[in-house]
Amino acid sequence: MVFAHVVGSPEFYWAIVSELSLLVWTVLLVVAPRLSGPAGDRRRFRIVAFGAALLAALVTLIGKLLEVWPGNPLFPSGHTAYAVTIAVFLVARDARWLTLVLPLLALLAVALVLADYHVVEDIAGGVAVGLAVGLGLRRMALPGARRAADRDSLGLEV
Length: 158
Description:
This protein has about 160 residues and is mainly alpha-helical. It is built from 6 helices and no strands. The longest helix has 26 residues, at about 10-35.
């Protein structure tokens, strides 16, 4: 999509930022488990989180093919769904990631709009898909969290 813009135009540079963000989110997913959170099964965390992010992107492609918003064939944003899903997994692993993922998500949203890839509604749709997939599948990546949450809800001490 970068090649759809005139080299040197502001849209061209914002397009580069939006495309590189996918690489940044993927690198974060690979590196983050080593930096924070429980040691646990880091490999499982990465595989489930990456699979969930790809699923979110696939859901957005299906939405575009079915044209869930008539007249807007770019709804919802796959870039945003991918990034939000990874953000959900990172924050579920360690809440301190929130201070990094929120500005990165904001930068991605701005880049996608300024690159003329999406409108704000597309971004909101991508956020909804990313949150739904991420929140729905995050416990698969953190199996101990489910048991701890169940004990907490029952009032049992750990």
